[in-house]
Specification:
single chain, about 250 residues, alpha/beta, five-stranded antiparallel beta sheet
Length: about 250
């Protein structure tokens, strides 16, 4: 089955080079290309491709701006000349990123990831949540953007999400960026075997728990390896004890 693909990059030579490299993969059918974000959005809405190869730094708007403007994105493989932009989009759960100049071996790896992803979907799961919203596992890497700063971080490195109004603070390493995402929306996309809703304001990564203590009103106090202390509400304590077989 052919994978209908659009290349979005402001450099004509880069588009030509990628098109040439993709000729090695019979399953990839390049149906169109675009030189900027607005043209890219137009082509995506016109053709509904299965996959886009997306440059990040383009005049006017970035590849991330394009992703933010789409209601529903195709699968994405980023192409970029800058390794600090080696990022994956949180919303789209992009398959891979390729540093320019693109090496044929890395391109082959990215196409292989595409096949693995498709196989997972078809063997898949009829779970609508996974198909519609992309249930994320702890091994997925996600795109976290706060102002001008961006990170490419594995979910298993995130120890805590904290609600701050309509935003969520994401705790990993020494960073605590804010993302425009409610805790409820995050909870729907996170694996509940790993991420636990401790209370109204916090989702914790259970792999990061260092210490568990009894707390007021039949609740628990969890200390994470990052030093944060999180109270588990009485209602969630019951669920937590069942999960942890305490």
């Amino acid at each position: 089955m052919s994978v209908r693909t659009i290349i979005i990059d402001d450099e004509r030579l880069a588009r030509n080079e990628l098109r040439k490299l993709l000729q090695e993969f019979n399953e990839i059918e390049v149906i169109d290309e675009a030189a900027n974000v607005d043209e890219g959005i137009e082509k995506i809405e016109q053709h509904h491709p299965d996959l886009i190869f997306l440059d990040i730094q383009m005049p006017g708007k970035t590849g991330f701006d394009l992703l933010e403007e789409l209601d529903r994105a195709p699968k994405v493989i980023f192409t970029t000349a800058y390794d600090e932009y080696a990022l994956k989009a949180f919303e789209v759960n992009a398959l891979d990123y390729l540093l320019k100049p693109i090496e044929p071996k890395r391109l082959a790896d990215a196409v292989q990831k595409l096949h693995i992803d498709e196989a997972r979907e078809t063997s898949g799961s009829n779970n609508n949540l996974i198909k519609a919203n992309g249930l994320l596992t702890e091994n997925d890497q996600v795109f976290v953007k706060d102002g001008e700063r961006c990170w490419f971080v594995k979910l298993n490195e995130i120890r805590l999400f904290e609600s701050v109004g309509n935003y969520a603070k994401v705790f990993f390493a020494g960073n605590k960026p804010l993302i425009l995402k409610s805790l409820n929306a995050l909870e729907e996309r996170l694996d509940d075997k790993v991420f636990f809703r401790a209370n109204r304001k916090h989702i914790i990564n259970m792999r990061w728990i260092e210490k568990i203590e009894p707390y007021f009103n039949g609740g628990l106090l969890l200390e994470l390896k990052g030093g944060e202390k999180i109270e588990v509400s009485r209602r969630q304590t019951v669920k937590f004890k069942e999960m942890m077989s305490l």
